[in-house]
Records
---
Amino acid sequence: MSRLLHRPLIALVVSGLLGINLIADEAPVSWFKEVNPIFKRSCNGCHNPNKLKGEVDTSTFAGLLKPGKHGPNFIAGQPDKSLLFQQVSGKEPEMPKEGDALTAGEAALIARWIQEGAHDDTPTNAYSTRVTELPVYATPPVISAMAFSPDGRYLAISGYHEVFLLDATNLVLVSRLLGEAPRIESVAFSPDSKSLAVSAGAPARFGEIQVWDVASGKESQAWKMGGDSLFGVSWSPDGSRLAFGGVDKSVRVLRVADGHEMLKFDNHGDWVFRTAWVAGGNRLLSASRDRAIKLIDVTSGQFIDDINKLLEPVLSMARHPKEEWAAYGGAEGGLRIYKAKENQERTDANNDVNQVRQFERQPGAVHTVAFSPDGSLLAAGGASAEVPVYKTSDGSRVATLKGHGGAVFAVAFSPSGDRILTGGFDGLVRVYDPSNGRLTAIFTPIRLDPTAGVVGK
Ligand code: HEC
């Protein structure tokens, strides 16, 4: 009722302001259908959860509701007192900072939306990337992650929007774990093999942690957080907590039972790709593109030390199964093992005091490193499409796994140590004998349908 009464007045105020005429009896302006698309085209490039210019997020209603650096973005009912309208109107509008100014009609629409109360009509699943049908693949999806369950029964392989769960013995597909996020970044089985944790994301939208019940193939938990992909999920030794990093440069620890955030660590200066638990679950290692592997006290959340000399972005890391050591894979081909402890004796000369071993330099970025179950071997996959396997004890090369059609992103030893699997850009899983590097099988985790649209790449 009151809206109807106010309508002519609004039209007068707004049209006076802009020198244009509004039709008095139009339907109310829709945030979702009319205003949001204007922002999407002209504003969200600088105002989104990952790029908060002026601390303003115009990408969602929830984002707009949060005040920017200079206060609230809008005051419902008062367009002329709302930054959002002020910034896009007038003779020389401040915003958008770059690109074409909004048309008078677009500015008027924003004003009218605010005047009408700035209502949110975002549909419940508006920003969901959930798919209702299982993906059909014309080409094998790029493999970004792969893991065996500790009991040796299952093998998890990343797909698009989903993780394939295979019987590890006969390599037959058992279930397809279809979640919301399109990009699967890492997979890890719980120490008791009953659950699978997945870190994933939708670029520039959200990150997601999923926990799946392995026996039933059902999702038991899923938490969305941050504005982009999450990486390197790892279980605490007692299986009660999950650690992971992300594009947002943070390291987080969640309690598996209820998703409670127990730790958020913001000392890294760049994307955090891997995490690993040491000291019986009391300390955490995090590896980042900022070149550091950081040691964190889990209880206090305090930074202890960088365990390594800062040489190159760290892309991959793996914990040694027995020793308090971590293997390190660098963006410039560095492959090393470090002690997971404080770097106290470091001097200005900057000797790399925690380094246990340095392997031959790899010809390209090292995307993945994996120890054999007994820790005697270290395999490194990366840009070079060949996967060398080294003896941990003296750094000598024992095998070279060949035949990949592109970069390798995932390497996994079977828990008995008799097989080593690789996966990567070409979407094929290759099975090798670690003792001599002989290729024994090649397969795709899912049957392909050449008539389908390409969703794999
Ligand atoms: C090319 C980047 C860019 C684009 C595109 C852009 N902005 Fe901005 N915006 C900025 C920057 C930078 C600031 C911070 C200015 C400052 O702090 O002084 C800002 C600040 C703001 C503010 C806060 C102003 C204040 O005084 O605190 C609002 C509101 C805003 N922008 C809205 C918009 C809207 C609406 C659009 C689209 C029509 C838009 N911006 C497009 C870069 C951009």
---
Amino acid sequence: MKVIALYNIKGGVGKTAAAVNLAYLAAAEGRRTLLCDLDPQAAATFYLRVRAGKRHGAKRLIRGGKALDRQIRESDFPALDLLPAKLGFRNLDLKLDARKRSRKRLGESLRTLADAYDLVVIDAPPNITLLSENIIAAADLLLCPVIPTTLSLRTWEQLDRFLRKEKLPRDGLRAFFSMAERRKKLHSATIHETLDSDPRFFSSVIPMSAAVERMGPERAPLFVYDRRSAAARAFQALWTEIRHQLY
Ligand SMILES: Nc1ncnc2c1ncn2[C@@H]1O[C@H](COP(=O)(O)OP(=O)(O)O)[C@@H](O)[C@H]1O
Ligand SMILES: [Mg+2]
């Protein structure tokens, strides 16, 4: 079982859009995939039209095993399951803190599902907390969507420094450009320079696209309603790169 986490300190950079579409693509290839929505705002859960069980909460999530397994829901798509998010997940940090080895707790909990899934895709909330450190430690691939602007690139560098300082694993740290507007000179220049200089960036670039925005009203992965769009092709290319990296 491999774990990918979509992570960025910033919100609104395309984490959830990527988590849902990449998980969909992995499952469409027949990989048993669990999309794990750890953001209490529950956007991925909304897109997949799933509702969390009443007793679902932070405690069960970090306990692992049966307690965790019972919270998982099927999606409308073969091979794709979802661990829905709940507002209760805002307490995850406190729950983790109460435990020893609290940085590894989430990873250990997820590993109890290793027989059931080939891939876990985590949609992470935008901040740096103990939960984020757990997500970083659990991920084989820490995948950071970056908007091609100076400030977003700065955040990416801050993340790298943070991992270094906290002695968190950096081997799996990767990025890709998200919400790119090629007509903007600054976007194009930033993409060009970064892809030339930073080998941790995947070369697939997700364009700014009305088709991606429609995931909201459609409540579905992009491939369900517009598989021919440029953005859909870009997610497919990104998934191919990720797959080569992971397997
Ligand atoms: N490639 C894209 N093109 C256009 N809109 C996008 C794109 N990716 C995401 N969005 C939109 O931007 C908003 C934030 O995206 P989201 O994936 O939720 O970001 P995050 O999870 O990082 O907060 C959403 O309304 C989403 O529909
Ligand atoms: Mg999100």
